[in-house]
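Data availability (excerpt). The following record was deposited with the supplementary files.
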Amino acid sequence: MKILVTGAAGFLGSHLCDRLLAEGHEVTGIDNFLTGHARNLETALQDPAFSFVEHDVMAPFDGLHDQIYHLASPASPPLYQLDPIRTAKINFLGTLNALELARRTGARMLLASTSETYGDPEIHPQPETYNGNVNHTGPRACYDEGKRIAETLTFDFNRHHGVDVRVVRIFNTYGPRMNAEDGRVISSFISQALCGQDITVFGTGMQTRSFCYYDDLVDGLCRMMNTKETLGPVNLGNPEEITVLELARTIIDMTASLSGIASAALPQDDPKQRRPDITRARMLLGWEPTVPLRTGLARTIDHHVRLAGQNRQAAGHGA
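Predicted structure:
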């Protein structure tokens, strides 16, 4: 098939491109490098079936594709809060443009939504039927509400224009190619541990998260795109829960770091708990995560070590 991936230079987008190319598809990637990186596409660019277009999804785009995976959006809280108005525009206009393309060409479109649509949840774990507890005027609302309106647009295009759509809500995902400086918890903790810095834990560290390795997540995206069982939304994530403090201690142990743990004030609207109910994914997609946390962390730590070595080598050549 001919497949379009928006946000192709991002952490998840680039891995998705690699998976689709390995399956024999012809893939076009779109990204403007707002938060993505060209190095993430090094593998894809070696494949003649891959083409890349540098483009901002806030402007309309064209092309004949069978499927559109719409992943374009900043995803880490520090980055999406840097320019909250732009974040909201990316999620509204970018999704609108992707849907308009799907409507014009008859493509199926998958929206990569987020667990952030649940806000700071009062129901645990979170099923897709839960409408969330979102502070729509807070500093995180640019992303939370941006994804919520993106879901609204997606289902309205299905109801009013007959566009073939799929919607997934992605919970915390990690692995190689995560930006070490994007402020997300696993990449931040690994970076601090490898540098021997104290690991910054917000609040008491008793807030919980659930972490899914990218390989499992990409498999879930592909299964969702190709299912006829549901339009969604469907949660994709790992239902195994861990406290942030336990995660910090695990990473210190796995890196043999001398780092301590430093406390910092809890950011506004930071969720106290986050864990997906993946009953729907299991039943409709036959999907659930298979990579244990420590296995995925080991692979991610190795990637950070290699990347740090490459950066030091590049700096040495530059000198």
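Summary of structural features: The mean pLDDT is 94.
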